[in-house]
Structure formats: C-alpha cells, structure tokens
Amino acid sequence: MKLEKNNIERREFIHKGAGLVGLLALAPDKSRAAAKSSRLRVALVGTGSRGCDMWGKRLVHPFAEYIEIVALCDINPKRLKAAREYIGTDADLYMAKDFDKMIQEKQPDAVILTTPDCFHVDYAIRAMELGCDVICEKPVATTAEQCQRLLDTEYKTGKKVTVTFNVRHDPSAIEVKKQIITGKLGKIISMEFHEFLNFDHGASYFRRWHGKTEYSGSLLVHKASHHFDQINWWLNADPVEVTAHGKLAFYGKNNAFRAQNCRKCSHVSKCKFYWDISKNEYYQKLFLGCEDFDGYYRDGCVWDNDINGFDSVVVDILFDNDVIVSYTLDAYLPYEGQVVAINGESGRLDAHIFMAQPWKEDKVSEFRYTETFGESTIWSLPRVEEGHLTADNDLKTHLFEPSHPDPLLKMAGSREGVMSSLVGIAARKSIETGKSIKIKDLVDFPLYWKA
C-alpha cells in the first residue's frame, strides 16, 4: 500500500492541567484567511472511512455553525472525489504531494489527520511549521522517534496538537472515572484490564494495513493506545515501566491457505473470514472504485503472510503513583468487550463493559463496587444504540463548541497522546527484546513536563 461566538478574534488551543482541553474559538491571526470567518477552517488529510465519516460527513453538517472544511487531501485522486461526494462538501481537493500548496492556498486554522498511523507525525510537523494547529486521530505516533519529533516541533512552533481519544467520551469509561474520583476506593493499588475483540471486529484490523507493524505500530499502538490512555486518564498518573509478551497466534501465517483478498480467493467456501465488500455501497465507491490507483485492497486476506502485528498480548505497567496494571488484548474471540477491575485499599470496582454478549439480549455495561469488609453495590448502564457515535459526538462537542465545560478533562493533547503511544511502543520493544522498558529511556521529555 502506498499508501459559536460572534466577533471571534482568535482560535487557539489552550491547556488545562497537564493536558489540552479543547479548541476554543478566540481571535484568528489577521494575516490568515480565517480572519474572514467566525468558523474554524479545517483541512482533512486522509479520506478513508474514518476520515470521511467521523471527520467528514458527521462533522461538516452537524457542526456547520462552527466548522468549515476548506480542503480534502489524500494520495488517491479517485478517493478524493468519492470522499467529497459522500461528505457533501465543496471543499477543494489536493493530492498529498501538494500538502504545502494546500496550506498556503487555503490557510486552514487546523489540520485533521486521519491517515494511516505511521504518517501522522510527518503531516503534523509540517502543518505546525506552516502555522496550523493539529487535530490527530489516535495514535499520535507509532515510534519513539516520532514522539520526540512531534514534541520538539510543537514546542518550537508554539502550535498545538489535540489527540482525539473518543473512548474518554464513552459513558462507561466516564462512569469508571467518576467512581474513582469519589475516593471510595481509597488508595488505588492495582488494576486489571482485559480487552476482547470478536472475530468480526478483530479480523477487520488484519484485513487492512493495521495488521502490519510498519503502518500501525501493531495493535499495541493502534488499538491499545485507546486503552492505555483510558488507564492513564482514570489513574491520573504517568506510566514508568513496561514489560510485555505477545505473539501472532491466530491470523497471518497461522492458516493453511490464503489469497490476495477476499474477491480473488479460491477458498471462499471453507474460509469463515470471507467478507463480501461488494455488498457495501459506501465501500464500493470509496475503496473498490479507487484501488487501481494505489493498489490498496480494503478486503485484504486475514491470512496474509506479510501480517506481522500481534493478535494476543499481555502487558504489565508500573505507574509513578506505584499502581501496577495488568493489560491483555486478544483479537479473535467469540464475543467482544472489556473487563476491568480496580483494586483499592477500601474496596474493588468491577466493570464489565460488553458491546456484544451472545448469551444476553440486553447490551449493558455492568458495574459492581465492593467495600472492603462491606457489601457490594451493583448497577448498570444501557449501551446506547449509536455506541461509537455517541462518544464521537461528545468528543466533537467538546472540541469545537466554544467554552464547552470539561470538568473531567476528557480532552487530550500531545502529552496524553505521546504517553499512550509510548506504552504501546515500550510494550512492543519489550516483546522484541525480552526486557522491561523504562518510558523515560524512550523520549527526552520537554522540561515543562518535568516541573
């Protein structure tokens, strides 16, 4: 793969506590085209499904009062045209090689990055050098070297990076955060975090570029950065040391047959992972109609021998507040969800956050608080039908609506983005070397972090 306020005068990102809390519409630089409009001017780089939907169609229309998409950018000209039609925008189209030209001509306030993960930092750095703030899908980076370059550029340019951890906006994750804040657990000692991906969701990563470490950093970075950020946010602490074990136990080479992609496969009748992408009209236009230009197959084979990421991992993390965390991720299971337990001196909080329970009709998240030497209290939260969309919308509301309150510090900046990526990067390095990895050895953190 080749992969609203009137008279707003300036738009800038502001910090709250240790992290970036959101984008506030305050006064644009009078030298920029944005000075002509009270709306935030954004350029979207990467027009895959996440870019076109979350940061395209579901942004430009519901948030039209606050946002104007002025440009779309991608490596594939066919996908650019399909994306513009799907989003319903008249934004100008630019090839990735013309990124600088796009910034100079359209003068966006911010650049939204939804490219494959390994390219996030290069675009983020260039955007900041050209005077733009950055809104980046997780993970913000896939290597320690990328983390360093990002931090150095943000400090040098004075521009700001927001990392969009939508899981912080999920009702179940918020419920856990609120329970911790009450203090009823007492001093937290340890945490268990188990992530289950079912055969549909898990396999989807290995059909795409995500299964190849050179693009995604492995699921330890692409997927687990969500979870590592959840943990960091819940504990309000920084990871210090990481030890991990992992393997590619199910996908990739672990099968007797394979093909280039599902449509060209002669083993359809016996492959339980066969997926007919042609039944999805959206994917037909966005991927099938564009693959002859860049050779990217959205329905790639989950048994591809080039897959080199992990589908089963165990990670142990030590935090600077002495909490120890055990994390697991398996991407090939019969059902999906999270099981989290937080152990404190005064009690234990259990959270069973299931998106799909085959033995129950009701999709709920179940919680139990058990007081030490006391009783248990059990309650549940229904899973809203929109699921992912609910968290996405709350994230965008915090990000774009002026002065939206953020008492739980759900918005994240470069610090939070880098710390979550570094846990996955350290875990991957630990698996490769068989050693424990100290976070401080990966990046030379800015002095203002150490204060």
Q: Which features would summarize this protein structure in a list?
A:
alpha/beta, 451 residues, 32% helix, 15 helices, nine-stranded mixed sheet, seven-stranded mixed sheet, globular
Backbone structural class = alpha/beta
Strand content: 25-35%
Please outline the major beta sheet. Answer: 9 strands, mixed
Low-pLDDT residue intervals, each spanning 5 or more residues: 1-36
Provide the helix percentage. 25-40%
| Spatial arrangement of strands, main beta sheet | 16-15-14-13-9-12-11-10-18
Supply the number of helical segments: 15
The separation of the N and C termini measures 43 Å
Average of the residue pLDDT scores: 89
User: What is the 3D form?
Assistant: globular
- Rounded to an integer in angstroms, the radius of gyration calculated over CA atoms is 22 Å
Give the total of beta strands. 18
